[in-house]
UniProtKB/TrEMBL annotation:
It is found in: Cytoplasm. GTP binds at residues 95-102, 148-152, 202-205. Belongs to the TRAFAC class translation factor GTPase superfamily. Classic translation factor GTPase family. IF-2 subfamily. Residues 347-374 form a coiled coil. This is Translation initiation factor IF-2. Residues 71-86 have a biased composition (Basic and acidic residues). The lineage of its organism: Bacteria, Pseudomonadati, Verrucomicrobiota, Verrucomicrobiia, Limisphaerales. The chain holds residues 416 to 799 of 1006 of the full protein. Residues 86-262 form the Tr-type G domain. Residues 59-89 are annotated as: Disordered. One of the essential components for the initiation of protein synthesis. Protects formylmethionyl-tRNA from spontaneous hydrolysis and promotes its binding to the 30S ribosomal subunits. Also involved in the hydrolysis of GTP during the formation of the 70S ribosomal complex. It comes from Limisphaera ngatamarikiensis.
Length: 384
């Protein structure tokens, strides 16, 4: 027998299928009624309704059924090793308050020589991709995507949803201030995510700059500078004067080369929403493509929302026809505002996207009604 479907499980538990869909959403799995689920999810849901889930014993080659549906893209049979192509690194900048993250990201934006400054108003979006001549490989264009918004909370939230979208963390430490509580916090987040860390010692122009102290403090935290025989890259810079910023970009590319980052660009896009909101043109999201290529006209599904991609806009306000792996773009066309961190997928057509989105909407409504009923009941008990 194949793994259990949402519908079958709902029947066994004597629950509405939408309720099970909502339960799965709580577990970070987006499924429709006909989809199967993995045993861990089934077990968790059974437990919720007071049942025990048992895996059926199979003869000899008993196989644990498929992974949760959201991982399906990962398991896509078309993602064969030979389909994978190098992709740009996705970098998150973290650090203590006022250590210069925003100033650094601004400085990097401006070193974006591919950007046409004339006429266009540079829009600040939560994630942006810069292109510049590769410092080592003549004639080649290098790209890096920076995530701006993720304060630590967003970073962890995405990680909790299983979306480790960051390849490299740049840990900004002000040379005059040294390691502070949020430096350590950021360090722990980066470590938990298992991504390599590049230390940017910022504010080197400051009279009180003490890069040696920063190195010592971080060494105590187990980040050994490479020039001290460790394997962490340290770059001294000033986001204000921009001295050293190019060096940082170079080091990011170097680190990225070591990681051999790859993705299949030739498949329907899958990625995550970095930020979302409403603009005069309707719901607008900043999307980070993880794999595949997102194109204008694609049918997009994102949590309980769907739509046809009307426009893709980059950091410089330019309209793009498509965005490949690791590229961050503003997307217009969804019919609602999804939560940052949520996953988007491109599906065959808009009808399909709508069908699944509506199922999810229904699941959310069921859940909301339940919560209201429960709250009312609780209030009642309080009154009594
Ligand atoms: P939060 O977003 O509040 O966490 O701060 P942040 O890390 O983004 O710091 P931000 O870029 O806002 O910079 C804080 C202050 O430090 C500002 O007054 C900057 O002008 C100043 N600053 C940033 N980089 C440098 C630098 O390289 N040298 C000097 N001297 N000052 C800097
Ligand atoms: Mg800032």
């Amino acid at each position: 027998k194949p793994p259990i479907t949402v519908r079958a499980l709902a029947e066994k538990l004597n629950q509405k299928a939408f309720k099970i869909i909502a339960d799965l959403m709580d577990l970070g799995v987006f499924a429709n009624v006909n989809q199967t689920m993995d045993p861990d999810c089934a077990r968790a849901i059974c437990a919720k309704y007071g049942y025990r889930f048992e895996l059926e014993k199979r003869e000899r080659h008993a196989q644990v059924p498929a992974a949760p549906p959201r991982k399906k893209a990962e398991l896509d049979p078309t993602d064969r090793p030979e389909d994978l192509r190098p992709r740009p690194p996705v970098v998150t900048v973290m650090g203590h308050v006022d250590h210069g993250k925003t100033t650094l990201l601004d400085a990097i934006r401006k070193s974006n020589v591919a950007a046409k400054e004339v006429g266009g108003i540079t829009q600040h979006i939560g994630a942006y991709t810069i292109s510049f001549p590769h410092p080592e490989r003549k004639g080649e264009l290098a790209q890096i995507t920076f995530l701006d918004t993720p304060g630590h909370a967003a970073f962890s939230a995405m990680r909790a949803r299983g979306a480790n979208v960051t390849d490299i963390v740049v840990l900004v430490v002000a040379a005059d201030d040294g390691v502070m509580p949020q430096t350590i916090e950021a360090l722990n987040h980066a470590r938990a995510a298992g991504v390599p860390i590049i230390v940017a010692i910022n504010k080197m122009d400051h009279p009180a700059a003490n890069p040696l102290k920063v190195r010592q403090q971080l060494q105590e935290q187990g980040l050994i500078p490479d020039d001290w025989g460790g394997d962490t890259i340290f770059v001294e810079l000033s986001a204000l004067t921009k001295k050293g910023v190019d060096k940082l970009l170079e080091m990011i590319l170097l680190q990225a080369d070591l990681l051999e980052l790859k993705a299949n660009p030739n498949r329907p896009a899958v990625g995550n929403i970095i930020e979302s909101g409403i603009s005069p043109g309707g719901p607008t999201v900043t999307a980070l493509v993880r794999k595949g290529t997102l194109r204008v006209g694609d049918a997009l599904l994102c949590g309980p929302y769907y739509g046809k991609v009307r426009a893709l806009i980059n950091e410089d306000g330019e309209r793009l026809k498509e965005a490949g792996p690791s590229v961050a773009v503003k997307v217009l066309g969804l019919n609602g505002v999804p939560e940052p961190g949520s996953e988007f997928t491109v599906v065959e057509d808009e009808r399909k996207a709508r069908e699944i989105a509506e199922q999810r909407q229904e699941a959310l409504r069921t859940r909301a009604a339940e919560t209201r009923a429960k709250v009312t009941l609780e209030n009642l008990f309080q009154v009594l």
